[in-house]
Amino acid sequence: YNVEEEGGCDDLDQGDNGWKIIHTDVFRFPPFKSLLCAVLGVGAQFLTLATAIIVMALLGMFNIHRHGAINSAAIVLYALTSCVSGYVSCSFYTQINGQRWVWNIILTSALFSAPLFLTWSVVNSVHWWSGSTQALPATTVLLLLGAWVLVGFPLTVIGGIVGKNRAGSFQAPCRTRNIARQIPPQPWYKHTFVHMAIGGFLPFSAISVELYYIFATVWGREHYTLYGILLCVFAILLSVGACISVALTYFLLSGEDYRWWWRSVLSTGSTGLFIFVYSVFYYRNRSSMSGLVQSSEFFGYSLLTALVFSLMLGSVSFWASLAFIRYIYRSLKMD
């Protein structure tokens, strides 16, 4: 305020602009903490499950002529890895000063299992109504429900309790002010939808070729055997998602916008939307499916697949962005 109008105003605080000037707001905890932590926990669970499935297939533990073997292994691993989602979710929820940790465990447990049960109920009801042999009998339904009640949910609770007790501090390099800083108007290319389009398309382009063979195996009569290539593509997918998330987060912070928490999840998590759009393209142009039974099953499970990718990539991109932000602001504090 003491600088004269004629001199030196443009040089005032020349070094404190962009991402440096919001160092007192960048670690301000976001809204909907419980939902964010549940997304991170379930995403970590699916990351563990997908890696285990690919490694088991690479070791030759599945018969290529029996698709049901992978499905059975996925169901068992989903129940056993529920402790991962509970631990990650409740641990981070405690770090960001969450208080309703019981509700957080319930939300984590139901975030994917509730859409899965709803989708399966609709698809199976269509099968029963049409008299299809693909409908699961009541005994199988009770067996799967018992596996979740007796194994999946208790492991989520146990993992959540362990994560809550072992959670440390958030380790923010910078102190957060009580009053939030005003965010300046952002250009159109820094809006959420633009970042979601960029952050979703690039990871999808890395797996688009492999998706065709996977869809042809699941919904066609092909046999997939290139699990080594699948592991490489999976690693490329995670790497591209993490790098894109870091770049988009840096662009966001450069515009003095500190609302990166949910943006980092949505930017790369939008890959699931592209996968669902591809499934629509595959249904119309690459498959010969038709009718209510086949359509309901295809689109129902395609929606679940898109949700899995969104949760998994959203979790990876968030942790990558968090590590990047901690690194740059720790360096700023040292200077």
Structure in words:
With 335 residues, this protein is an all-alpha fold. It has ten helices and no strands. The longest helix is centred in the last third of the chain and has 44 residues. The protein starts with 32 loop residues before the first helix and ends with a helix. It holds the Pfam family EMP70.
Task: Summarize the helices and strands and which ones pair or pack.
Layout: H1 33-58, H2 67-80, H3 82-95, H4 101-130, H5 138-166, H6 192-219, H7 227-254, H8 261-269, H9 271-285, H10 291-334
Helix pairs in contact: 1-2, 1-3, 1-4, 1-7, 1-10, 2-5, 3-4, 3-5, 4-5, 4-10, 6-7, 6-8, 6-9, 7-8, 7-10, 8-10, 9-10
Task: Give a short synopsis of this structure.
This is Transmembrane 9 superfamily member. Belongs to the nonaspanin (TM9SF) (TC 9.A.2) family. This protein has ten helices and no strands.
Mean residue pLDDT = 86
**Structural class of the secondary elements?**
mainly alpha
The total strand number stands at 0
**Which band does the percent of strand residues land in?**
under 5%
Whole-angstrom Rg: 23 Å
What overall form do the CA principal axes indicate? Answer: globular
| Subunit organisation of the chains | single chain
Could you give a short account of the major beta sheet? Answer: none
Please provide the ordered H/E string of secondary-structure elements: HHHHHHHHHH
Distance between the amino and carboxyl termini? 26 Å
Transmembrane segments: 35-62, 68-89, 101-123, 135-162, 193-215, 227-253, 260-283, 303-329
Pfam family, one: EMP70
Protein name: Transmembrane 9 superfamily member
Subcellular location: Cytoplasmic vesicle, Autophagosome membrane
